[in-house]
Specification:
2 copies of one chain form a homodimer.
Chain A lengths: L2 H16 L3 E6 L23 E6 L4 E6 L3 H7 L4 E5 L4 H11 L4 E3 L13 H11 L8 E3 L1 H9 L3 H24 L6 H14 L3 E2 L4 E4 L21 E6 L1 E3 L2 E2 L2 E7 L9 H20 L6 H14 L10 E3 L6 E6 L19 E10 L3 E11 L4 E3 L8 E3 L2
Helix pairs in contact in A: 1-5, 6-7, 8-9
Chain lengths: 393, 393
């Protein structure tokens, strides 16, 4: 059975669990604005005019769409009712709502969960105009809980794709250690990885980030053509791919030995060990029922107690259809993260575990692993980096 | 000067013209939801956390973004003020608004114009929470007028890219006439065009649509592997590409001669001539100051008077950063088109002119051309199809 069929079936069971009557996704011109949950409702196709996709608690799958999109939706074979319209979606929409008479309608908007927030404000205003004078206007709720469950709880097909994405990006990281030479720039490494990505018939799940030595620009900065590999540098590579629409996200840490060095300097080793320890300790506690912020705090405390500056991002985000999948976040309770650190970890969610410290004169010390939450713990999807990769160039 | 610099400068002059103090675009996780106007504000880069991009009537360009996105924005060299934050965007946002004290704030939402409607409803609610108790909450207006002007009025660089996109898609259409053989399926033709697209290092601006003979599924339907070219068929191909982010959108019409035929049947010729006449007559009237619906009506009336069924779409949409660019539409006053047919045609807008009629036993008779509005008329960007392409297979 294909993914869309399986995920829409899963949506039906989540609607039952949450006791929500229908999930209604309202979109238009999906080549301009692509609702992040559309992946679970459609294959690649574009929707041109305003379209409503409805999944009901009782197991119905209904689409109301522009007349010219009907043939594609029919070919997909997921929806049992497909209604094409010419001039306005309103009449058919109200007719379908009257037939179902749902007491709760989960709509595609959310304050905190970007993946559940595909409804634009203009479309919200349109929808409210359509529903004026009907009882349904009072029955709209956010689809964020539904979407957090649907995106978070990976089914077998999805886990397989993530595993494959992890495997390909691990090969890319390995290639870096073979490729890198003294005097190469951050940009040279980036280019090699983009070539590797293409050769493997995948796409990057985000622009690769290359951090070479102490002068690199930390964060989402573009690779520099001026910053070049020299002895004594830490080389951090942050690289992941999309395999059939599912993302990996991994960081590996390399150290370029200096003349006569056989082991890295003490401060580099201590940084590496601190990062590894923070990942190990937080992974040991990661299991269903924990709050996102509790896991983040474990790693954050280890870093701060070791005397390093606190990392200014979340310890772990979910991976899936997006490299930063929404819903429960292993992050601190900062305003920008909304309610996501307050959510509970669930079985079959896939998370990154990532953090960094900075080592004066050497650079950015950071590792990122990918894990899958199991019934009572978590499994690493990546082959963990437990030893610092030493480069003799 | 690069495109983003030129378009943000153009935005400043439009703000002056419309007497709007600032244009404020509020986005987050742009890999999940990509605001359609972001193209004019940023190069390829992704924005991870909540970000506000502000262009002021007085010529200031300001960004407030997550700390890790700062280096990329600095490298872009477009914004004179770049503020990085860690935990919440609110403080910096209110500070900047207090400094400017704008009396009108054009925000990225719109009921009718999808290209100006990038703000999700969740983000709208967040923004309103931030602005609670400030005077700014009453000063928010839709950015649709600003965006319609900015997207519609193409600058030289943009026109050049559209022309190149048109040229490449014309070559693709020519290739179809050389490639097609009896017994080939719609899917075969589609595959050839996708290969051609890749070979030309561009991407399709929409999935190519192939209509072969009388049994084809009309509209945005996927090409069929079962519908095969036979004598007496009309073959319509709808194919356009993105060249450096700018779209073309063209349809060409071919007829497969039957045994002994040297000219197509009368009904095919009449259909072809009706479509050509509708395009010619509407193009003659297309100029700045006309309403979109007036141009559509010219073509629609010709088709209906000739005794054909009315086409159930707009005569012409704009092309640009999207193949269906928003703003003024040459379309009928149907609810789904909102206010766009009521808008005025302006100089330097690029439109398609497209319509179809159906010919019993032969198929879909449709042509689509691309035009650029000039000071007092319009120029064809495509080499018009004025003769039916006859295939002797």
């Amino acid at each position: 059975m294909n993914l869309v069929k399986q995920k829409t079936d899963q949506a039906i069971s989540i609607l039952k669990e949450l006791n929500i009557d229908i999930w209604l996704t309202y979109v238009r011109k999906t080549s301009e604005i692509h609702d992040p949950s559309l992946y679970f409702l459609m294959e690649d196709s574009w929707l041109t005019w305003q379209t409503v996709l409805i999944i009901t608690k009782t197991g119905k799958k209904i689409v109301i769409c522009g007349r010219y999109d009907v043939p594609n939706l029919e070919k997909m074979g997921v929806y049992d009712t497909i209604i094409g319209y010419d001039e306005s979606i309103k009449t058919d929409l109200l007719k379908i709502l009257d037939e179902i008479d749902p007491s709760s309608i989960a709509i595609n908007y959310s304050i905190d969960n970007v993946a559940a927030d595909g409804l634009t404000h203009g479309m919200w205003l349109r929808l409210n105009k359509f529903l004026e004078g009907t009882p349904y206007i009072e029955r709209l709720i956010s689809s964020e809980k539904l979407l957090a469950a649907l995106r978070g709880r990976k089914i077998g097909l999805e886990i397989d794709k993530i595993k494959k994405a992890v495997e390909i990006s691990e090969n890319g990281h390995k290639k870096v250690t073979e490729f890198v030479k003294l005097g190469m720039s951050e940009e040279d490494i980036e280019k090699m990885l983009l070539k590797f990505t293409k050769e493997n018939s995948v796409t990057v799940s985000y622009p690769p980030l290359i951090h070479v030595g102490p002068t690199t620009s930390i964060g989402h900065g573009k690779a520099s053509s001026d910053i070049k590999v020299k002895k004594g540098d830490l080389i951090n590579v942050d690289y992941g791919v999309f395999y059939e629409g599912y993302a990996s996200d991994l960081q590996r840490m390399n150290y370029v030995l200096r003349e006569g060095e056989v082991i890295p300097p003490k401060e580099v080793v201590r940084a590496f060990e601190t990062v590894v320890k923070a990942i190990t300790t937080s992974a040991e506690k990661l299991k269903p029922g924990m709050h996102g912020w509790e896991i983040d705090k474990i790693a954050r405390d280890i870093v701060v107690k070791a005397g390093y500056k606190e990392f200014k991002h979340a310890l772990g985000h979910q991976i899936g259809r997006n490299v930063h999948d929404s819903g429960c976040l292993l992050g601190p309770k900062w305003e920008k993260y909304g309610n996501s650190p307050l959510m509970l970890v669930e079985e079959n969610q896939a998370f990154t575990l990532e953090l960094h410290v900075y080592v004066e004169n050497h650079g950015y010390a950071s590792i990122e692993e990918d894990v899958l939450v199991t019934k009572d713990g978590c499994d690493f999807l990546s082959n963990r980096q437990l030893e610092l990769s030493l480069l003799l160039l």
